[in-house]
Amino acid sequence: MYNKDNVFAKILRGEIPNKTIYSDDYVLAFYDVNPRAKVHALVIPRGEYTDIFDFTQNAPAELQMAFWNGVRAVVEKLGLRDNFRTIANTGRGAGQSVMHFHIHIMSDERFTEDF
Fold this sequence. Notes:
This protein has about 120 residues and is α+β, with helices and mostly antiparallel strands. Helices cover about 25% and strands about 20% of the residues. It has one domain: HIT family, subunit A, CATH 3.30.428.10.
């Protein structure tokens, strides 16, 4: 079940500030406050989806397409086309700390060792 008080929901409502990289009607992308690489961005859909399964099963096709276009826009805006990784942790056991679907975009010559 989606928790409307999670930190990403609060960011989407403007209750918590963020360093926005990209924003449109479907997506918000911002820098992670606890980066694990030189560049560490988060991309979240504007909607109440807990994880990748919830998002791909329940989000309208238009939002799903716009989300992935947003991921691409962030990669291009940050100049990372040939040097990045994407991560979607799913479930607490896999390290998902905020139960709002999101993608990590990370880049650096050397990533932190715990990935």
